[in-house]
Structure formats: C-alpha cells, structure tokens
Specification:
With 170 residues, this protein is mainly α. The chain has a domain of 65 residues. The protein is built from 4 helices and no strands. The longest helix has 55 residues.
C-alpha cells in the first residue's frame, strides 16, 4: 500500500487511502500565497540600488576632483618656479649687460669711441665784462642813467619802442 502525497494544495482536500480507513487526515497547512517571481525588480529596489551607486561614487568623484586640483596646483607651482628662475637669470643677464667694462668695450668696438684725454683747466683772472641791457628792456629813468649809446636817432627809438611795446608782452 502506497499512499500518494498530494502535489498541490488543491489535492490536499482530496481523501487519501488513509482517510478511507476511517482515520481522519489532518488538513494540510496552507502557506500564504507569494507572488510569482516575474524577473522584474520593484521600483523601490531600483531606487535603493541607484542611491547606493550614487553614495558609492560620491567619494570617488570628490577624491578625483581633489586629486585633479592637486595636480593642477603642482603644475602651476612648477610653472611659477620656472618663471622665478627665468627672472633671476634675466636679472643676472641685465646686470652683466650694464657692467661698466662691457659698456666701455661696446663703446670702443661698435661705436669707435676712444677714451677721453685728460682735461685741461684754464683759469681766467680777469672779471667778466659788465652786461648791459638794451634800452627797450630798461625802465625810462634807468635808460638815461645806464649810459647806453645807440647810433639811432631819438625819433627812430620812439618808433621802435612803440613797436616793441606792442609786441613784447610781460
């Protein structure tokens, strides 16, 4: 006597050979019905996976941006050092170009200049001559006192004095 086991929950309600022997079979416990797996993830699972991916990539993105900034900083510092060394080199070159020996050499070679000869100093023991101003620049009372002699006539002086008075602005 072999007893067949029911294969599904629907078969559990059918009598078995043991039930026919006046024994009552205990009802088979019914499990809660689970939805069948369709191969699709629910939306909340997708959101959770997406959130985990973002949370995992944020430190990587931040670290890569910090690394990139550090790399740019090192490149700029190297460029600054190169420019500072070039400035120092050019300053030394300017110092060499401005040296007195080089300027003297260039003056003699390119410009055909010669060194200066010793200078002679002359001493004059006579006072310089007195300066006299033309009468047109002296006030009228000083012109008579200055003792200036002019070969022109007084009529000619007045004409010229009138012209110069008009033309010369003080």
């Amino acid at each position: 006597m072999t007893t067949a086991k029911p294969s599904t929950t629907l078969d559990a309600s059918l009598p078995t050979s043991a039930a026919s022997d006046s024994h009552h079979a205990l009802p088979r416990p019914v499990l809660p019905r689970r939805p069948r797996y369709t191969g699709r993830m629910p939306a909340w699972a997708w959101l959770a996976v997406f959130g985990l991916c973002i949370a995992a990539t944020l430190p990587v993105i931040r670290t890569s941006s910090v690394t990139e900034s550090g790399s740019e900083l090192r490149i700029l510092e190297a460029e600054r050092e190169r420019l500072n060394s070039e400035i120092r080199s050019l300053a030394a070159h300017v110092g060499q170009l401005g040296s007195l020996a080089r300027v003297k050499h260039q003056a003699e070679e390119r410009l055909n200049m010669v060194p200066a000869r010793p200078t002679a100093v002359l001493e004059v023991k006579q006072p310089p001559p007195a300066r006299t101003l033309p009468s047109r620049f002296l006030p009228p009372s000083d012109a008579a006192n200055a003792g200036l002699t002019d070969s022109t006539s007084t009529a000619g002086q007045s004409i010229w004095a009138g012209i110069f008075d008009v033309l010369i602005f003080e």
